[in-house]
Each structure stands twice: as structure tokens, then as C-alpha cells.
Specification:
The chain is an alpha+beta fold. It is built from one helix and five strands; from the N terminus they run βββββα.
Length: 95
Amino acid sequence: MLDLSALGLRIERPFDPDSASPVVQLEIELPGIDEIVWARGDVTFANLTPMGGVHPNGQPRFWCRAGVRLRRMASSERRLLRDYVIETRRARRAS
């Protein structure tokens, strides 16, 4: 995970064409606190960059950077995520 907000996130990972989907299920571990947020999100953009080499099926390998808009999550987890983002920003500004 590269960026996190109360509304979405940006991730980077190797691209897997077999599991690629416009809708993703996420398990977000919040750094510094012992909490995990479960959410469903919509991929809003995906940029593929060649990695070199090929998969066993002969397809080229790509690195994927994607934006995900968080769509479905429990209201308690949404509040937890919002509070985490706000407190993280406050701590960065104070330092």
C-alpha cells in the first residue's frame, strides 16, 4: 500500500491476469495499531509497467499500480479508518 485515505488507497503489486478484477476485496492492516479493516472496493485506475520475463504460461510480467475507491465496509471500520487517517496526518504535521 502506497497511500491511504478514508475514501480509498493506492497499491502496487505484481500484476496477475488470472485474478485481475475491477472489484477487489481488501484486508487493510493499520500500521501502529492492532486492527484490520475489511473492505470491498472498485479499481478506479491501473497502470501496468513491464517487469521483464514471462509467466509460466508465456505471458509477459507486469508491475501494477492501482487506485481503489473503498465502497463497502462496516460503519465501525469506516470510522476507525477515518480516525486513523486523521490522527496520522496530525502526527506528521506535528513532527
